[in-house]
Amino acid sequence: MAATVSDLLAALPEGIDVPGETPTEQTLGDALNELTKQPIPTGALRRFGSLTGLHAKVGLAYLAYWARGCFQNADRRQQALIETNLAAAMKILSTMGYLRGAIMKIGQAAANFPDIVPDEFVDTLSRLHFEAPPMHWSLIREILHDELGRDPEDVFESFDRTAFAAASLGQVHHGRLKTGEQVAVKVQYPGIARTIRSDFRNLSILMLPLRFTRDWSCIHPQLEEVRRVLETETDYEQEADYLMRARRLFRDGDQIVVPRVHQEFSTRRVLTMEYLDGQTLAEFVRSDPSQEERDRIGSLLTRSWCRLLYAGRMNYSDPHPGNFLILKDGRLGQIDLGCMREFSDEEWEYLRYADQVVLGGRKEAEAHMRRGTDFSEAELVDLELMDAMVEYSDWMLQAMRQDEPFDYSDASVMRRGINLIHEFSRRWRPAQKPINVFIQRGVLAGWGLQHRLRSRVPVKSICDEEIAVTGWRQQTV
Amino acid sequence: MRITQQVKEETRARIVACAERLFRTQGFDATRTKEIAQEAGIAAGTLFNYFPAKEAVAVALIESALKAAEATFRKRVTDSASLEEDLFAYIAAGLRRLRPYRAYAKSVLETCLSPAATDEASAGASNIRTGHLQVFGELAATRGWSEPPTAMECQLYWTLYTGVLSFWASDSSSNQEDTLALLDQSLRMFVAWFISQRSTESLT
After folding, report:
1. Which residues of B touch A189 (CB under 8 A)?
2. Do B173 and A191 touch (CB under 8 A)?
3. Which of B85, B181, B192 lies nearest to residue A138, judging by beta carbons?
4. What residue ranges do the domains of chain B occupy?
5. Rounded to whole angstroms, what are the CA distances from A346 to A349, A352, A437?
6. What's the whole-number mean pLDDT along residues B93-117?
7. Does B1-50 carry CATH code 1.10.10.60?
8. Which ipTM value was assigned to this complex?
């Protein structure tokens, strides 16, 4: 039976249908309180139910907006849109807190695109970076004991019982080792690794109907790529390895610092590292810094990403505001390297070809598209397809090609890129190679971060300096 | 010859220690009371003066571990923790003490501590239940609920507790982390219900 307008209006989330009342911090506070009461399900079926419930809730909220729009003037309509966006964001937040793991990653990625998703979504989803539901001290104590083999009192001189930061996979506590060093201790929620595996099993079930389509041969390896990287992220020993390797890539003059890992107090579920004291990137933006400071931090972000890529052969795919700190001495701290993708020799060679596109023109771009996608020669005869791919490539690489600093504050440039992606996915199959999934995610999320910063960055000169270490441009491809 | 209380206690402790060693090395099901008696250096019949069945010996082991866990928990308890957190800490301390017996705990727990257990073989099981529920009542009382938990509240709590124990005994996840998640979630659910019950009562 079709829903009536009354049904849809009744389906509006509570608290947004009160005339004259705008969304308030109190409403958000209530949602967050509600969030903290929700347990983390570890059973695949329960999570599956939550996921489909989420779609239903968001869908209903927008349907309700559409229904209300039939009876309202434009101003009121705008108001209702804001309310509905906020309510939908809260529903997403609530369900994500419930699901955690992989689903929270989607929220974090979305929060980096303030001009693509509505402001109310961004504000609410941004809270995920540091306000995930907490584990109480007694649970933390048990995990620490299990992982480190001793009571926390025997390992740490002091240990704050309350977390100072929450992440998608765990929460972070401030402590001091017996030797006096200040440390940040990241503790993983029990069972979260299986949660991610379970999420992917659910996703596979949802995608079963695609198995016999032509797209499946592209989608399946891309999904596998996502699963592999997210599963790696649940292994803090792996993250410790990334942190140690990344730390060695930076010198004092770089103004970029990666915390030192205390390996003897780190395991697959607990990561103990040097405590860095500073503002998060979100706090930095809120403090209304000068344009000069924004540009400086924007340049450090670009430098950091390029250094990891070109000198470290690692693609950092999770650049969101919670993963960076502005230290008191002005340095940039990169505090979370969980979501990293390393390149094989074969992939590295592929990236060397990609660099030729930065320097070259359409001919190089076309040659790269033939290597970097699964489109057949017959498909690539389609000039519109090739034009679209080259246009997207030009959009992605524009910051690396222009001599003057690139202005990330221009929302229209970012919107154009997103429109290109939408248009491409509407017309052609998703034939990109798996390696590009996280490269694209890293670039787009980094772009979103710079956009929030409203920075102007000399991307080309930074990239040229950093690429030099590869020796690519002295070689013949 | 009259046997002193001290000798009785020493014999009892020896039986428990020998049983623990046999349960650990050859399994609970494969161990016979005759072997426990032999290992402890007493006649088979003498063992029954101390324990009516091997399940009772196992329960004595568990009871002793849980008493030690309670002492650990009481040392750590603070005013700032919630009821949910205190119950978590109390149960988790018990699970940690029981860990050496996990390999054979399942059959003992199901036989003696399950809500459906008849308990004829193990008088100690009712001590464990009574002691545990007493701590639950104390923790609730410190939050201002002076009325002791009702029979229904106790039964629900005990069902939760023994369910967690049973899950833990078969939990194959690393460090039984799934049990921690289950305990966390089930206590959130139970305490929310318990508080709502008490709020309703205070209103009426």
Report:
1. 181
2. yes
3. B85
4. 1-50, 55-203
5. 5, 10, 16
6. 82
7. yes
8. 0.87
